[in-house]
Every structure is written in structure tokens, then in C-alpha cells.
Amino acid sequence: MIKAKTPCYIIDEGKLIHNLEILRGVQERTGCKILLAQKAFSCYHLYPTIGEYISGTACSGLFEAKLGFEEMGKENHVFCAGYRESEIDEIISYCDDIIFNSFSQLDKYRERVLKAGKKIGLRINPEFSTQEGHEIYDPCSPKSRLGIINKNFDRNDLYGVTGLHFHTLCEQDSDDLEKTLSVVEEKFGDVLEKMEWINFGGGHHITRDGYNIPRLERCIKHMQEKYGLEVYLEPGEAVALNAGYLVTEVLDITENDMPIAILDSSAACHMPDVLEMPYRPPLKNSGIPFEKKYTYRLGSQTCLAGDVIGEYSFDEPLKIGDRLVFEDMAIYSMVKNNTFNGMALPSIILLKTDGTTETLNKFGYEDFKERL
After folding, report:
1. Within 10 Å of residue 355's Cβ, how many Cβ atoms?
2. Buried (b) or exposed (e) across 276-304, using 16+ Cβ within 10 A?
3. Predicted local confidence at residue 308, as pLDDT
4. Disulfide-capable partner of 35 in 9, 58, 74, 100 (CB 3.0 to 4.6 Å)?
5. What distance lies between CA 260 and its chain's CA centroid?
6. Residue 53 included in any domain
7. Same domain, 157 and 279
């Protein structure tokens, strides 16, 4: 195990490249373009490597737009639910495709985008949910603010619009994409006939074991052949899936109806999806509760009563000073970090393919103080 001060994130370069090779294969076989959704993974130290395999970046606002432009320098697409007047010109300067969430925003900024020679897209909402129990990540949930529904889509106000964007999936297989595309065609097929490109958004778990890549490729080729569209995908998780770890140390062990291990990492600060989803992060060499001989509740040193990562079982009793390794911690972790309760931000370490390590970033008191 890497000997570094905990908590720390470790990015596994070999596993990252493994994912990228899969994604590049999809691009090469279909001619689609895959973009890194920076909202999931924006460790820009790895952008030169990522850029060798895929077509560019996707962003959600000014800072991500600037980061993708500066650090990868390839195609850069942006979608935002509402652009600020004070930021839109700078965003346009960094991005190739500007995607709007409403006709009012399109009408407000259309001429600026066209004058800059950039492409315009509209985000649609097919009102077809394929998720269960994840409303926080479901753009097709009732009263969603994301995307234009069919009854509000003004087919007479498409001057300058060359593409449509939808994003409805979250950690899903290509069968859900196939079903969604059928609904998109049913509701917006007449619009697709006038477009040049379509963006399938993210949520495609392409690099997960068992994901049906041939069906994904059939979906891509169908849109290319039927409508003559250039197809984009913008997965974030698929790029860095299973390519990172969070290493934490056991600070104390207490008892309250069951053994409780206090860790120097935090669900609220370092893996917030645990509380938002909820989500159970995989933990190396552990089992579900009572699967193995010794079961513990794992919690943080913060004062938030609900700052609990979950219950796990182990072959041997935990001891103070033991190190635990949470897996699949590259995505939606570093990008969501916070310093609640004065918790330190974990350092970021790269585990290279040759087995050596490089500290990409480390944080301290000033990083906490300066944010406030």
C-alpha cells in the first residue's frame, strides 16, 4: 500500500488508460466523438493523457469551460441551465458548441454565438425516465428544470440551431439508451431531420464489466445513418470508472450496539454521493454486514451525526492505525470535496503504470481559510 498521509486520493493511471482504450475503440468503430464530462472528473493533470484517446471536454459553466480549453485544448462543449450575462462572451470564446436550456436563453445570446462562428444546440427533455430511486440525478423527473419538453419546443425558432442534446441516464446500460432514443425520435424526429449533430449526454457506463457496447454502437450508427447526424457522447464516470481510491486511517473504535470505527475521512466532505444518492462505496477486502466475521459501522471524525459511510464486515478485527482503501473514488469525489468542519482536503496522488507515484496536489490550512 502507498505510504502517504491520509486521507488521500490515488488515481490509478493503468486503470484510467484501460477505460480510455475502450472509449477510443467505440470512437474508431463508429466515428462518434466522446467528450470528458468534467463534472465527474476534472483532474487536469491527466488531461494530456485523456486527450490522446478521446475528442475533448464537456463543461457546465465558465470555470470548466476555461479548464477544458486550457488543459486539453480539443473540442469543448458547454451546457448550462442558465448563462450569466457577465460570463457568456468568455464562455463562447472557449467553447465550440454552446447548448441552451430554453428558447429565452437562445434568443438572448444567439447572435453572439453565431457572430463568433460557434455552433448552437438545444437541450431537450424527452420526459422518459429510465431510473428508479435516483430522482436527484434524474433529469426526466416531474417538474425537471433541465431540457425543453416537446409541448414547449418552438419549431419556428430554430434559426442557427444545428444540434440537439439530451442527458437522461445515470450509471446505466445501453438498453436504457436504446429505449430513450426511441422516445426522442417519436417526439423530436421532425427536428432531427433538420439537425447536423446530436449529443447523447452522459450516464453511459461504457467501461463497466458487462456493459453492452455492441448495442451502444448500433444506437450510434442508427442516428448517423437515418438522420445523417454526427453523434457525441459525454460520459464522465466511464472515463475514470474504478480508476481511483481513497485511503483512510482508523482513528478510534467505539461501541454503541455495534463496533464503530472512526476514520480520518468523511462521507460529507470526501464522498458526498454516499449521502446524496445514497451510495455504498466499495471497500477493498471487505464484505456486506455480517458476511465476514467482524462487522463495523464506518464513520467520520466530524460532528455531523449522519456522517456515516456504511457498515462493512472484515475477516479480522479492525485496529487503530489500520488503513482502509475505498475503491472507485476518482469520480464525483475530488470534484465535490468540501472543508466542512475544518476537514482537510485529501491530497491527490498518481499511481503510474511503472509502479512509481507522483503527488499531483496537496492541501492544508490555507486552502480551508482562503475559501472563507
Report:
1. 7
2. eeebebebeebeeeeeeeebbbbbbebee
3. 97
4. 58
5. 31
6. yes
7. no
Which helix (DSSP H) or strand (DSSP E) does residue 78 occupy? strand 75-79
Report the alpha-carbon distance of residue 316 to residue 8 in Å, rounded: 24
Question: Please, which contacts does 354-357 make with residues 24 or more away whose CB atoms are closer than 8 Å?
Answer: 357/2, 357/4, 357/10
C-alpha span between 126 and 183 (Å, rounded): 7
19 and 140 part of one domain: yes
C-alpha grid cell, residue 132: 428508479
Here the cell at position 243 is 480508476
C-alpha cell at 317: 478485527
Output the pLDDT for position 1.
Answer: 61
**Do residues 96 and 217 share a domain?**
yes
Residue 8 is predicted with a pLDDT of: 97
Judge if 160 and 301 occupy the same domain: no
Residue type at position 43: C
Amino acid at 252: D
In sequence order, what are the beta bridge partners of 324? 248
Q: Is the same domain home to 162 and 305?
A: no
The CATH code of the domain that includes 196 is 3.20.20.10
Name the nearest CA neighbour of 98 among 227, 51, 82, 149.
82
Return the C-alpha cell found at 65. 469551460
Number of domains observed in the structure of the chain: 2
CA distance linking residue 368 with residue 372, whole number of Å: 7
> Rounded to an integer, what distance in angstroms lies between the CA atom of residue 158 and that of residue 101?
13
The DSSP H or E segment spanning 299 is: strand 294-300
Assess whether the previous peptide bond of 278 is cis (omega < 30° from 0). yes
pLDDT per 10-residue tile (average), the chain, 372 residues: 88 98 98 98 98 98 98 98 98 98 98 98 96 83 96 98 96 96 98 98 97 98 98 97 97 98 97 88 97 98 97 98 97 95 96 96 96 90
Domain with 295, as residue range(s), is 241-370
For residue 133, what pLDDT is reported?
67
| CA 57 and chain centroid, separation | 12
Adjacent-strand bridge partners of 231: 198
Please indicate, yes or no, whether residues 139 and 272 belong to a single structural domain of this protein. no
Q: Find the farthest-apart pair of alpha carbons in the chain and give their distance in angstroms, rounded.
A: 67
